[in-house]
From TrEMBL:
Residues where Zn(2+) binds: C105, C107, Y119, C123
Stretches assigned to the Glutamyl/glutaminyl-tRNA synthetase class Ib catalytic domain: 13-114, 135-237
Stored SUPFAM superfamilies: Nucleotidylyl transferase
EC number of the protein: 6.1.1.-
Organism expressing this protein natively: Pseudaeromonas paramecii
Protein name: Glutamyl-Q tRNA(Asp) synthetase
Enzyme type, top EC level: ligase
Gene expressing this chain: gluQRS
Lineage, uppermost ranks: Bacteria, Pseudomonadati, Pseudomonadota, Gammaproteobacteria, Aeromonadales
Listed NCBIfam families: PRK05710.1-3, queuosine_YadB
């Protein structure tokens, strides 16, 4: 096995957004992060990323938790809700501002698109006020590459890495990059296991960890499950919700997607299958592509 050695100090997490029910792509992220943690005797936490109320579906957060319970993915500690942590995010922003590491930006999305799509630092030294402004990190120490447990060194577009990215939006909502770093740091997350669609934001998040003086976790980015047109399985693309009544076949499919070769005789045995997956997790079998075409396959 190439997975890390047994460590009770390992803390992983699953952090869905309550914009709809969990689907097969969600199961890949939830199950793999759970298995990495449990295979090392570590802890696994759940966070609800409910930062953007207009995108949320009423009742989705409770449905997500019921689905995790139905699939036997039991978490440690209390569920963290980002919507209840606004004071914490603002306190960190205030500290960064007092240290001269943020500034207010009045540029619109249309202006940034006209400048080539990446923010050119227009408001950096303008000394603008907070009214109707976004808050940006003054990017002094860009991170251009990081080490991924599955892919090795990953390098990203240097222009993206050097961009002064947004920490709080003009509409007053806290940005994902700010909230996820604060939450993971406060929860003591030692490794972030998530989909390959979040590879690029990783360098921004590392730079924010460093600005905050917090330990940087490890990273493991998984292949995305793609539907027939080659699009990521997602709520926006109408991926079907996971069934709650028979989780074993879905877990069996997810393990197959992750290259774990689950035994055929366990394909309808939920608890034995999950126990097998924990004791037989092999990280080096996970495919290294960033996306895999995966149509729903009926299991008989």
């Amino acid at each position: 096995m190439s997975s890390p050695s047994h460590s009770p100090t390992y803390i992983g997490r699953f952090a869905p957004s309550p914009s709809g029910p969990l689907h097969f792509g969600s199961l890949i992220a939830a199950l793999s992060s759970y298995l990495v943690a449990r295979s090392q005797g570590g802890r696994w936490r759940v966070r609800m990323e409910d930062l953007d109320p207009p995108r949320e579906m009423p009742g989705a957060a409770d449905l997500i938790l019921r689905t995790l319970e139905a699939y036997g993915l039991e978490w440690d500690g209390e569920v963290v809700y980002q919507s209840r942590r606004h004071d914490r995010y603002q306190a960190v922003l205030d500290d960064l501002h007092a240290r001269g590491l943020t500034y207010f930006c009045h540029c619109t999305r249309a202006q940034i698109q006209a400048a080539g799509g990446l923010y050119p630092g227009t408001c950096r030294t303008a000394g603008l006020g907070p009214q109707g402004a976004a808050v940006r990190l003054w990017q002094e120490h860009p991170v251009y590459a990081f080490e991924d447990a599955l892919h090795g060194e990953i390098r990203v577009d240097a222009r993206l890495a050097a961009e002064d990215f947004i920490l709080k939006r003009r509409d007053g909502l806290f940005a994902y990059n700010l909230a996820v770093v604060i939450d993971d740091a406060d929860s003591g997350i030692t490794q972030v296991v998530r989909g390959a669609d979040l590879i690029e934001p990783t360098v921004r998040q590392i730079s924010l960890y460093q600005a905050l003086g917090r330990p940087v976790p490890g990273w493991l980015h998984l292949p995305l499950a793609l539907g027939a047109p080659g699009l990521k399985l997602s709520k926006q693309n109408h991926a079907p919700a996971l069934p709650l009544d028979e989780p074993a076949p879905q877990i069996w499919q997810a393990l197959s997607f992750l290259g774990q070769c689950p035994p055929l005789e366990l394909k309808h045995q939920h608890k034995p299958l999950l126990a097998w997956a924990i004791s037989h997790w092999q990280q080096d079998r996970v495919p290294r592509q960033q996306g895999i075409l995966w149509e729903n396959r009926e299991i008989r």
